[in-house]
User: Fold these one by one.
Assistant:
Number 1:
Amino acid sequence: MHYSDKFHTKIRFDFIKHQKKFFGASILLVLLGIVSLLVFQLNLGVDFKAGTHMDIEVGAPVTKEQAAETLDKLGYSDIELTLGGASNQRVSVRFDEVLEQTKVSEIMSTFKSQYGDQVTEEVNVVSPDMARELGGKTIYAVIIASIAIMIYVMIRFEWRFALAANIAILYDAFVVVALFSIFRLEVNLPFIAAVLTTIGYSINDKIVIFDRIRENLRFSKQKNKEQLAELVNASLWQTMARNIYTVLTVLIVAVSLYLFGSESIKLFALAKIIGLASGAYSSVCIASPLWLMLRGDKSKPGKTAKAPVAS
Amino acid sequence: MKGSSRLIAFLGIIVIMAGVFAWTTPGLVNDIRLGLDLKGGFEVLYEASPLEGGEKVTPSSLKETSKSLEKRIDAQGIAEPEITTEGSNRIRVKLAGVTNEDEVRDMLKKPVNLTFRDPQGNVVLNGTDFVQNGAGLQRDEFGNPIVTIKLKDAKKFEDVTTKLTGQTMSIYLDEELLSAPRVNYPISGGTAQISGSYTTEEATKLKDTINLGALPLKLTEKYTQSVGAKLGQQSLHQTVEAGLIGSGIILVLLIALFRIPGVVAGITVVSYVWLLLLVFNLMNATLTLPGIAAFVLGVGMAVDANIIMYERIKEEIRSGKSLLSSLKSGSKNSLRTIMDANITNIIASVVLYVIGNGAIRGFALTMIFSILVSILTNIFFSRFLIHLLIRSNVFKKPSYYGVKEAEIRAL
């Protein structure tokens, strides 16, 4: 820790000095993600894979064996099922086939006769062509949203800032996808909502930091590598409190959704939590050092905007 | 205005707002339209295709099909059905609070049935007797609209009209009587005109219906979501509870970190929630489970605007500026950053709205509303309140703003 007199800022940790470790760790995570996506791929839910998904809220604790036995009696053997809820009272079943409504009713009435009338359910059935269409649309959506946000950042900043920020937000989106692949978590439409809003939200910290870097650039004359590094570190620490607080508030609601929200919103909340955490990390440890690398060691002052504003 | 009167104005606003919120919130909450994932029901996306191959699905036949679905649903007494056509051949049906889902779904899947009946109710002609897309709209010499029809079998039509000469021939779609024209003489040649005192609109509708009946659409379920009522209620309670817990923690945290401005932030967050509920009511928007998630995330994001501004103000105070000039430069300098955050989020939400299906659209729409509302409450209203407070000259110590005296530099 040292005190930067020039920027009146306590530098509690030198992020630039340790940038190699951050880059290394992030590249490793990206590689792991790529390997996992190639080997395990994503655990696609019915929205993208077609088939039938049933969430059966039994109202009393059940075991996997009991639920499997009930399904087995109806002729569904080797069905993928998971238990959820605070005391394993919810059974989630996925069928690869598109079940007819009569089959769904049959399953439900069997569960009801076995466990009572409080059994309640959510059933999603997606046909193969709809799943294909949704998958295609989703890929477009992520690409279009990323490009739109990138263009916005490019208008807002000079290209080095824009490039660094965009690499970092794409990294954040990828981390969410990679962790879902590594941990075999199910990917459905709400997951896409989480990834897209991660892209939209994670850019904010980067804008706050880059605005500050730009503001500080205006007031410091000489810009060799060390001075720039000090400037970036100071900017990071000047904005640290607000970046932590803003992420923290959204993280608090995301965590309470994860812990207390309904079962079907949990994976969405988890994706948000991962995205928020990665966004906070990448703003400080990836985007800012990356900008410095792109900026290089130039004695001439870089192009700065006409009216720098920051917060 | 003197300082003390500003404080009184501030307190007055708070008291009035608290009163309005307490008085209206229960009504607002009760009036909110809940999506079927929160109160039970089902959503089906149908793809329509001609029952007998050949012809394409026309926009008017798709529209007529969706209208006929609506009539069948209404006949069942199901409240607030949502039926929309999508693209060139899809119909989305959302029904909440249905208890006999199996029956309703069976009924909806049946193709429409167009029949012409004699006065005794016997079916004399049905949809398949008509040439596909053969019905047309013309005008007689007085400019009154008439519907022309074409039949496949001229002989059969001649026989029917011979038998019914002098009587009426009623046209039914399913069990609904559309029109009962009188047959004046036997009609040969396989074409006929139906005239009457129709408005152009009525005649067009009759024409479309006959064409639909001649080429009934087969509806295939492509996507269905069905939620049990109990599960829906449970999701609603759990998720609202999660939202309240999260918001409560945020309020405590805001006051602990920012003191006086934190209280203002708390007030603006509460007004954000109230205003968003009001917007939902006025727009008659449907709240879905992902919508609640967006609502709750919105609380976390709305306070960001306050935090960014307060942190900036704190920084200005630390640099030795007076409270008032810290406030001015702090709020000016933070505005653009805050707007950036809102704009990028709106971009992502709009894209999501465009691609999404029902529940996800609910999420995206809530997100967009929530951002717009939070711009009002957590930027403008928040600024107004904090101005009143600072200029009241009551809270002068930096510690009221979460800044320690020792941190303040001399200018």
Number 2:
Amino acid sequence: MIILGRRIRMEQRLSTPRSLLFLVPVFSVFFALVVGGVFLAATGHSPIGTYLDLIDNGYTSFYGITDTLGLATPLICTGLAAAFAFRMNLYSIGQEGQMYLGMIGGAWAGIAIADSFPQVIAVPVVLLVGAATGAAWIALPAFLRARLGTSEIVSTLLLNYVALNLLNYLIFGSTGFFRDPTTSFPQGRLVADSARLSPISFFTDKVTNTYPTFFIAVILAVVLFWLMRVSNYGYETAVYADSPNTARYAGMNSAWLQSSVLLISGALAGVGGAMYVVGPAGKVDPGLLQVGLGYAGIVVAALARYNFIAVIVAAVLFAGLRTGGNALQISNDPVPIAIAVVLQGAVLLFALGGELFRRNKITITRVQVATT
Amino acid sequence: MTNVAVAAGSSTTVQPALQARAVTKRFPGVVANDAVNFDLARGEVHTLLGENGAGKSTLASVLCGLYRPEEGQVFRNGTEIRLNSPRDGLAHGIAMVHQHFRLVDRFTVAENVVLGHKSLSFVLATNDIEEKVAAITQEFGLPLDPRAVVGELSAGERQRVEIVKALYQGAEVLLLDEPTALLAPPEVEKLFSTVRAMTHTGKSVVFVSHKLGEVVDISDRITVMRGGRVTGSVRRGEADVRKLAELMVGREINIVPRRAKSPTSDVLLSVSQVHLERDGVEILSDINLDVRAGEIVGVAGVAGNGQRDLAEVVAGLQTPQQGNVTVCGTPTARSGALGARRAGLAYVPEDRLGTGLAPSMSIVDNMVLTRERGFLVDRKSALAESEQFIKQLEIKTPGPLTPTRKLSGGNSQKVLLARELFAVSGARVLVVCSPTRGLDVGAVEAVHALLDEARDAGKAILMISEDLDEVMTLADRVMVLYRGHITLEQSGNDADLDRVGRAMAGIA
Amino acid sequence: MNSNIWLLTFADAISIATTLILASLGAILTERSGVINLGVEGMLLMGAVTGFLVADSSGNLWLALFVAVLVGVVLSSVHAALTVGLRANQIVSGLAMVIFATGLSQFIGKPIEGDPLPVLIRPIDFGALSDIPFFGPVVFGHDLFTYLTWALVAAASFYMHRTRPGLLLRATGDAPATVDAQGGSVARIRWAHTVVGGALMTFAGAWYMFARSAAWNQSATTNGIGWIALALVVFASWRPLRAIGGAVLFGFSLQVPFTLQAEQIRILPPTIVAMFPYLITLAVLVVLSTPRARRLLGAPKMLGQPFVRDER
């Protein structure tokens, strides 16, 4: 495009300056904060003051940190789930529903079978069952994609709503297995004690919202990262993601690769839901519906550019935004929590735009306006 | 060298329909057309003949307005014209039909024909358009139903749509770029009769092609290009295949052959009675060939005669409808790529970066692509191997961790060969396609040396190449692939260039 | 069983369908040019909340609708800039838009949560005509914009299939290289249709707000209608006229739980019944995925692919 006698063109870079790898995310956050600040100011709040409060409540105060780590726990899982699939160009956006199913499955295991096991067995069992249920929930879209080429975007998305209604049904719509038998108030039945973990007190006597599941999630991310680096499976998925023709040439089974990636993605989101049971909730809790952790996981994954270690960082960052935002709601100058969601979306949008700068550069050259 | 140049305003009273004078077109690093003269008489079929990269497509693009030449002039009916875009060309009645069709599958024939048409009304007068299209198809013997959906048409029919598109827009001069590349033999016949019908009504046609044998019959004149220059021009009847081949290639084909040093022994690769069909079209018919340990069998042929499919069937990537492939005694036709590899076969495809290598991944990562991998990928030994090959084969690269897409053509080919020839242990049969395509002289030498070495080491090599030189140089036995059939088999030493060339052209 | 209530349900379904039709029409136009905009859900919400706010402060329905449209133009321009201008990944951009717009609508909607609607869109009073048995409520019971929507669909269908720019639009989604080779501007066509699509999406949200909602409350307002609209695009095979049938079907399935509850019919628990729209949509998607169906009725070939011209 030509503006004012100068041709502005976008060309692919031959190599990316290292500085950009840091600058792009940093600037994305910065510009997002600017945009958020505009909306804050427009509604009569002080941007700087709000942000300072946000940081304090989200990242620097004791309860802020622990709340953040607690919220980051399932977010790491859904972030991993999204990253795992997106890196293969499989756009599953069903992490939300898979997480609910993981919660349901984990709760089932926690109620039905956990009390016959000691804690050291029961907790992993609950997590595994949660993973399996999450995978089961994505099995249909995976099958449809492999067999019929149905877009996984819409199919996984629709199942989110089905899962949401299922969750509502189990707690509000019925008085069955998952309901607390001791009260007529609609809430979930508690799982066995052996299926639960106590919060980490960090050497204080305070009760926090951080559970050992946080470290399980971090370890999961690290292990996954390492596994995909060194294993044949990680290798084959990387080749397929790079060039499907090459994968075919090498004799790799594309259908299997795609389906298995989706199933693992579902399992990861399911584990997140199960962690919620093992950790804070101890039951099927419809409160999880409000948080939107599944969709947030997609943002986290995109921001982390599908790198599993970066997912940890991004998840903590976003969880901090949420908890900080939560606190803002009830502070002296109440700001709707939605500001956190706005910031999330804005960061992603800017990161997307910034991504282009990483891959391309803008060249501006003077042109003579042709006279013929 | 004969240069047929018809100056504008010469003694002949009829001006050529289209003429290029001293046209020069440069791209970064290469002169695609170097002071080219060319003319097209009205009602004539004039073929531009040459190998890939000779500059014939470039010239055609200049003539239709797709490119602007750095130097030189273009004349239409004796008057100089300046073409800034294909639309300008169309305004002068010049249209090009590209090799890769630019059609919308979902649309009908009629919709495709009018898609770019300038004077189309806001509301489409579908009936009128369909009638006009029908009229054109009738007039030029291009049977097409204007309401047919293009996506359901055969390659030949789609080409007809492209031609109708040009005619609808009022083209009097048509440039057809490699028109027979995607056609089956009966469709080629149909195309030729269409071309004759067009020239009978006064339209002029330029055929751009490298298929020597096909164009001999249809052309009134053939102008041969090589390396951006015109090397010669002959009229109908003067055409001699051998002379044309020489003009295309540029020299007396003087080959210093490399042959097997020791007598060959067991048959390691056996292909028998292979038939391959796709979408109802026969791609390979009754292929039979053997390759022994310590020999190179070269399969020559012009591009588009089934080379890639043959390679993929042998390598297990495609399953033939009939026939067998046996690698080191094990039948592999239905075992897939992995089965063929396990039996001892290695395959170097023509498409290096898009198929043979994973472009964003490092040399080390690519080194393990075609070997058996355990649960964990052993990158350590792959790293050692890569470093060794880099040194041994003088691969120019910043390091073994460089993504392969950053390597030049020659270097990425070296990586591929290193992997398939040496790194894949136990591979005794090698299938290699167009190994030196697009490589510079030095790289070509290096690759040929590698293949020679492999032969001496006792490997059985099936080399499928469009480069006749290469085949004649290296092959112990020469075969020709023409339209999916093996039409000739000769021992390398006895190979008669004339016979081979004619077989490649499909001439008995 | 009161059969009249089912008739009213059907009429209601047609009414709800208006939102679906408008939103999916916007998506159809966008996707036909080759751009996929997943941000529908967020756009609906933004349209609803801005419409409410403007109506609240001005009392003017038309102004509110106009501003809602403007918001749609702005938001979809961001998407277009990212995806067409900068060739970013369209899916991620759309999802980011959903998240951003959802959050933003919640944020600016906080002050008015629970407030009653300042203005309403009412059905046109056709008098005696609406008492005609069966046809009455179904045909004559709707508001001005619903009728306009039907007209708009017809106009869009005509545009797409019978006019020159419509031909270009369809070609751009399937074969942008061809359009480019013939001198057309792929970028311009994509921008234009993405922006128009976005305008329709926010308008749909605003209409829903004034015609069918009781108040502004995020989760009750749209409840996934945006996503159903996207599925509706596939159901309609990217053809405007076909969107109507599907929209009514989905509208019906969305309305049924309320009717069942009102009539105290409990064959199935309401939450289970609430799953139906999504399950039906899924089933339809599957049926439409068979290879033959996809080839002829299918998506624009280059949907979701950024267009890069080979520089020569």
